[in-house]
Amino acid sequence: MSNKPAQLSRRSVLKSAALLSAGLSAASVRGFSLPQPAASNGSALKQAAQHSGKILGCYSGMHELLMDPAASSMLASIFSMIAVGNDLKFSTRLRPTPETFDFSFGDADVAWAERHGLLFRGHCLVWWNALPNWFNSYVNAGNARQVMTDHITKTVSHYRGRIYSWDVANEVIYHDNRPDGLRKRPWLDWLGPEYLDLAFHTAHEADPKARLVLNECFIEHATPAEQLRREQLLGVAARLKKSGVPITTIGVQGHLRGAVPLDRPGMTDFCRRVQDLGLDIMITEFDVDDVDVPGPMIDQTVAAKYTEFLEIMGPFVKVITFEQLRNDPGLPKRPDGLPHRPNLFDANYQQTLAYQAVVQALAHLPAAKSEVRI
User: Fold this and answer.
1) Spatial CB neighbours of 42, under 8 Å, sequence gap ≥ 6
2) Inside any domain, residue 374
3) Contact status, residue 28 vs residue 357, Cβ threshold 8 Å
4) Which residues pair with 16 in a beta bridge?
C-alpha cells in the first residue's frame, strides 16, 4: 500500500469527521492544516518531541533492526527509544526449555539501541499470553513461584543497567468476576494476587534503577467495560503502593479504536489519580484500529484519534511508544479488502496523515522547561 493521503484543509477535515457515526468532536481534529506528505524524513516529529519534552519510542525487533535498512535508519534518526514486541517476552523464543534462556535476540536488540544512543523498553516479564510451549505441562502450583522469580531474576539481571523500563506485569485486569478485577489465569490461580507484589520486588532486586511498569489495555474509551477496567486498575495500583511494592509507572497501551469515542474526562481524572499515587504514566503501545471505520474515512479518523489522545494524555506523560513504525502490507486486510492504516508511516515509509497529526499535537503542547535527558 502506497496511497498518499490527499492534502486536506482544516475545514475539510472537520467536515469529514463530522460525518462519522463514532461521534468524533471538532476538538478531535483541531489544529489540522496539513501539507502533502512527500518524504519519509521524520525530522519534524523529532523536533516536536524535543519541543514538548517527550521521549518517543517505537516497537521493533531484531529482524527489522538488522535486516531492514530503511526501517532501522528511521528508527535511529527519529526516535529516542525502542522496544521489542517478541524478543524478550516470557515465550519460547527467550525460553526454549524450562532450564534454558536464549538471549541472542534481546542481546542484538539492546546492542543496536546502545550503538545508536537510544533508550530501551523491556517487554514483558509476566503475561498471561505468548507463554513458552512447555509452560502448561511444566508449571503448577508447586513450582510457579520459582519459575516466575527465576525468569524475572535471570532476565532482568542479564540486562541490568541497560534497560530504561520493564513491563513487569502486562494486562492483569480481566472480567473474571473478581471484585479486584484481576485475571485468574495463570499466575493468580497458583500464587494469589500477591504474585504482582512478588514480580515487582523481584525485578527491582535484579535492577534497582529500571522503571517498573504495570501495563494495561482497553481503558481509554467511553464504554462501561473500559470505565470499570480503569477503576479496577487504579485499585490494584493503589494496593501495590500501599503495600510498599516498588512499582514506578502505569502503562496505558493506547490501542485506540477509530469508531469508539474516547473518554476525555474519565482519562483526565484517571491520570490525575495515578499521579496522586506517586506514579508516572507512559503511553506504551500507541496505534489506532481502523477496522470499523468507513473506508473513505480511514486516514482522517486515524489522524483525529491520535490528535485527541495526545491532547488528553500529553500533559501527563513523558514517554510515548508507538506500536509499529509503518503500515505492514503483509498483515491481513480489513473486511472490505482495504489494508489497515494505523501507523505514522505507510508501507513505503512515507509520512501518513497520522504522522502530521502527531507532529502538530506535540507542537501544540507546552514547551518543555528543559532539554529531555535520555
Assistant:
1) 74, 77, 78, 351, 355
2) no
3) no
4) none
Domain contains 210: yes
Question: Is residue 107 left, alpha or beta, with left meaning phi > 0 and alpha meaning psi from -120 to 50?
Answer: alpha
* Domains identified in the chain, total number: 1
Please state, in angstroms and rounded to a whole number, the distance separating the CA atoms of residues 321 and 113. 15
Nearest to 229 by CA among 164, 293, 167, 182: 182
What are the residues facing 283 on neighbouring strands?
A: 252, 320
CA distance 350 to 97: 41
CB 364 within 8 A of CB 22: no
368 in a structural domain? no
**CATH classification at residue 198:** 3.20.20.80
- Taking only the tens place, the pLDDT of each residue in 43-102 is 999 999 999 999 999 999 999 999 999 999 999 999 999 999 999 999 999 999 999 999
334-370 pLDDT tens trace: 999 999 999 999 999 999 999 999 999 999 999 987 5
CA gap 166, 208 in Å, rounded:
11
Which residue range forms the structural domain that includes residue 261?
10-363
154: DSSP letter: H
Query: Amino acid letter at 178?
Result: R
- Per the CB < 8 A criterion, the answer to whether 70 and 117 are in contact is no
Reading the block at residue 305, the C-alpha cell is: 484519534
**Is 323 among the domain residues?**
yes
Q: Return d(Cα 131, Cα 364) in angstroms, integer.
A: 41
Element (H, E) at 238: helix 224-242
